[in-house]
Amino acid sequence: MRETLSGLARLERDPAPFLERANIPPELLELPFARVSRTQFQTLVHLLMDELDDEMMGHLARPMRRGSFVFLCRASLFGALSLHVVLARWVKVQRLLTDEIQLSFRREGNVGWLRLTGPSGAGHDTLTFLPMVHFKSLHILASWLVGERIRLSGVAFSGPRPAHGDEYARLFPGEVCFGAPVSAMGIPVQYLERGVSQDVDNLNQFLRAAPGNLLWQYRSIDLLSDKVRVLLRDALPRHLDIVQAADALGFSQRTLHRKLISEGTNFQEIKDGLRRDIAIDCLDHSRLSIEEIAEQIGFSDAATFYRAFKTWTGVAPGMYRRRTLKT
Length: 327
Hints:
Largest sheet: 5 strands, mixed
Strand content: 5-15%
Helix content: 40-55%
Number of helices: 16
Number of strands: 5
Distance between the termini: 18 Å
Structural class: alpha+beta
């Protein structure tokens, strides 16, 4: 969210009105590990794009007007027989929209590399944010076109590793690195040779959900990690360990662990993320005491919850609530 809002600084625009309309307390910007909901963030992105008439939300000197992504999708997909053709067209068509960003696509051995450079003189935020937006959008679109979440050969960013660098591993299924000579995303050739399973008519429905569906992972089927999260949520305040969860889902403990690792997560990470998200929601939107929240999400006592919450967010639960209540 901070990276997204940094485009307003280029325009000397105050972020406060956008945050207020998206129902995001400005105080959260001061908390190093604070979270906002998908709905809040998606609303913020829509507001920025619509108000600025710029799908890059102020991160370029010249805006990419609303409708640019739709134009790119339609022009790249029409009559294309393979993912390789779609991506090669995308690079050519984008040149019609902006010369601040140079995007190239080249097959090298068993990998097709999308490389992005520019804009010149960009700050550290832009060096990471713009490639992230382009690569994530293209990854989601490519996965939708072939009907499978594409496992990438790797993603590199020329900018320095941000404070929240670990979150990039959630966005991109593949090795992620920072401080590279050039920003690049590698797609294995077996995906590039696939015929596209979607057409321009199906594209209309996909685009109606944009940009929200471009912010999250593409899922052709439900992920096992989602099923584990629902299982743990429904069991609260009762505690389930991995053995009990595996048994409820019809797996052995080893199989469940292996499958979760293949989705880029693990049981403890899902469990911590669920309890963190519920705790934040309760602190933001309920009058429950710290002790009641701890009990609701399955902690044995408030002290244990206090330590866990400080690990998750960098501040104590009482301090988190006081900062958000200021707004």
